[in-house]
Amino acid sequence: MDAVTSGGAGVWISLSIYFLGMIAIGVYAYFKQKKDVEGYMLGGRNLSPAVTALSAGASDMSGWLLLGLPGYMYASGIVSLWIAGGLTIGAFANYLLVAPRLRVYTEVAGNAITLPDFFANRFDDKTHLLRMVSAIVVIMFFTVYTAASLVGGGKLFESSLGLDYGLGLWVTAGVVVAYTLFGGFLAVSLTDFVQGVIMLIAMLLVPFVAFNEIGGVSAGMDVARSVNPELFNIMSGVSVMGAISLAAWGLGYFGQPHIIVRFMAIRSVKDVPVACGIGMGWMILSLIGALFVGVSGVAYIHNKGMSLDDPETIFLVFSQLLFHPLIGGFLLAAILAAIMSTISSQLLVVSSSLTRDVYKLFLDKEASESRQIMVGRTSVVLVAVLAIMLAGDKDSSVLKMVSHAWAGFGAAFGPLVLLSLMWKRMNYQGALAGMIVGALTVIVWVYGGITIGGQPANDAIYSIMPGFVLSTIATVVVSLLTPPPSAKIMGEFDEMERQLKA
Which residues cross the membrane (predicted)? Predict the structure, then answer.
């Protein structure tokens, strides 16, 4: 049964309102934003704490919150709590360690607009090598990440709307491109805020209604336990190292450009604590809701004598079977919100990097701000088309694709971001070595054919762990073996710390 045949008009009304709303926000942002590069790519550094928090959260969670995580809980049980717990700790540490320092330091270090911009200014990269390598990492991993998000959109259109998977990819990407193209960073952040609210409501509503259908939380838990006795064993199917690997997802936060760019854009460092409270509250409630969707799904599917071929569609099944079509359409919009918020953020980060770190740096050093904005908009379209091509395999696992990209950024940029903000002695050579070692470790770990105990290395130990550790070691060792930073760089670091204490 799909939403089209089981009540169609209401679903399409809800989705149409959602699509038009997102585009309307894009139009509003187009007229509201400053017509310069900082306005288009960073919203003029004027985001409120609430918009910063929900924008960071919505762009972070993507389709895996409503598809991947509930599916993992459905298939594997409470062992998925290792991921949720690791992410929660990582996000909180990100607000404490990265957000305030990055907000101040990016202005102190040459008013950097992109993360590669900041790296180049922070380490006085006269060779442009650091900026170029970081831009390559951004473009490579984000294109895969965007493709992973589009897979979720394609699955939604196919499973719930009875439409072709490929058409779903194009519709999802098309709406995102429409508001990102014109509204830039402000449009992305405002739509993320609205989408974050929609996602939270959905994640609380669905498990509440599902448990009521099966006799309450206690009864549902009992049924789920009878179906899978290992469902609530937090170590089921994993070793101690496997559990640590799942929790290590939290390390990735320090290196995710689409998340930490929000910290660069918040209007004041004094707003960071408020944003932290809002963001962490939203995240914890959303993760709990996602886990409960998976548990209630096990019980519901069993009680109804149904089968579920793809666990990642359990949220979709609930949206179709338990709600009026108008509400069902709202829940489908929640999935699209999760997917589209991430896609828009990723598209903007990649297009900003292509514009600032490739086009302006190598092709047109004197490019005017209007030309840079035009190149950025063109890049949004080109990257979206490439991501659609990569997302052509509808059998791709959303969680698996996201995990590779997440690890790549976490290992390549995580230690680099943390150490650059907290260790004055870190230098250009250490930054370059750490970034390259981190990125290559993840690639080799995932695709190099390495095995541990007879299983693929990435299945035994999540690639972000060796990548993060080796990147950190390379950064520290190379920095200590090479000359210290210049007096200018040391002075900028001291100025950053002075402003934080003021």
Answer: 12-31, 73-97, 129-147, 167-186, 193-211, 231-254, 274-301, 321-354, 374-392, 404-423, 430-448, 460-481
